[in-house]
Design goal:
Isopropylmalate Dehydrogenase; two-stranded antiparallel ribbon; globular; binds 3-isopropylmalic acid; binds manganese (II) ion
Length: 356
């Protein structure tokens, strides 16, 4: 089979880690007899520099014409002072919205080999954890009305959180379906003691839950969820939550895995054309040094094979190669114990390819 993949390398370490994932995909393609074709498009700061816009129409059209999209990262200090709608991050929201990617899957699991990198107490880390965060990605406060207005204390800025039952229903369904294939538990995170959107969220999630009597549903307030994640992460299976709560909780979950450099993500709609990206940012401090951890992007490519192309065996092969490299003690700088030898981005990629 031939698959067309749009590459959005972006800024900072984006190009380095995307190139690593491309090399892994090519190697997996050779091994299993698939042809992956890659077409690069501009996004983020790189697109601003070249065209003046963070998300050129050509990029949107290219993604829509592709079978799937692989994204590195966008943003950096060079573009930090641009107005909100011309920042690199705006491109990310724009492409999520243009492709209708309302589901964001962010798996966070503790690799046995990385237990020492987990900042939690030893007995908590020893329990391990394997969480799937299902984050709503095209609604909520990220996409609500915003601006400036006259308020009680003069000029004020405002952002608004909006959710319709339809948006909550469809993401809840994804969470329950996902839980069915895992350990059968959903924790729905909200702030229903304060927010109207959260009260609608809770009510709607419970309506959807009626169709899934085999799945356990539990509501957790977001402040408590933040606490429970570091107290006992093993209690969670699937977490479903709004755009902003999901953004925050997934960063917290990534830290307890040892490094944000490990976590992949899949952004999905009702079609098979998803977008896959590491959950970390563009890391401008280490850009161009060749030392970034490519694993989150390589695992994102594995998710692409699994979710967009239904190539489960090929995805397993990549994930197992990463496991093996870690089990054999291979480390990039972010996950290496102090003083231990570290591999460059390219070396880690070579080692993973060798283990496919
Ligand atoms: C993420 C990022 C983005 C988000 C930013 C860069 C817009 O933090 O993918 O988690 O908040 O969604
Ligand atoms: Mn984030």
């Amino acid at each position: 089979m031939k698959y067309n993949i749009a590459l959005l390398r972006g800024d900072g370490i984006g190009p380095e880690i995307v190139d690593s994932a491309v090399r892994v995909l090519k190697a997996a393609g050779e091994k299993f007899g698939h042809e992956f074709c890659f077409t690069p498009y501009l996004i983020g700061g790189a697109a601003i520099d070249e065209t003046g816009f963070p998300l050129p129409q050509e990029t949107v059209d290219g993604c829509l014409a592709s079978d799937s999209v692989l994204l590195g990262a966008v943003g950096g200090p060079r573009w930090d002072n641009l107005p909100g709608d011309r920042r690199p991050e705006k491109a990310l929201l724009g492409i999520r919205s243009a492709l209708g990617l309302f589901t964001n899957l962010r798996p966070a699991r503790l690799y046995p080999a990385l237990k020492d990198a987990c900042p939690l107490r030893e007995e908590v880390a020893a329990q391990g954890f394997d969480i799937m965060i299902v984050r709503e990605l095209t609604g909520g406060i990220y996409f609500g009305d915003r601006g400036y207005r006259q308020g009680k204390f003069g000029l004020e800025a405002y952002d608004t959180e909006c959710y319709s039952p339809m948006e909550i229903e469809r993401i809840a369904r994804v969470a329950f379906e996902t839980a069915r294939k895992r350990r059968g538990k959903v924790a729905s995170i909200d702030k229903a003691n304060v927010l109207e959107t959260s009260r609608l969220w809770r009510k709607t999630v419970h309506q959807v839950a009626e169709g899934y009597p085999d799945v356990e549903i539990r509501d957790v307030l977001v402040d408590n969820a933040a606490m429970q994640l570091v107290k006992d992460p093993s209690q969670f299976d699937v977490i479903v939550t709004s755009n902003m709560f999901g953004d925050i909780l997934s960063d917290e979950a990534s830290q307890i895995t040892g490094s944000i450099g490990m976590l992949p993500s899949a952004s999905l709609n009702e079609t098979t054309r998803g977008m896959y990206e590491p959950i970390h940012g563009s890391a401008p401090d280490i850009a161009g040094k060749g030392i970034a951890n490519p694993i989150a992007t390589i695992l994102s490519a594995a998710m692409m094979l699994r979710y967009s192309f239904s190539l489960a065996e090929e995805a397993d092969s990549i994930e197992n190669a990463v496991d093996r490299a870690l089990n054999e003690g291979l480390r990039t700088g972010d996950i290496a114990p102090k003083g231990a030898p570290t591999l460059s981005t390219a070396e880690m990629t070579d080692e993973i390819i060798r283990r496919l």
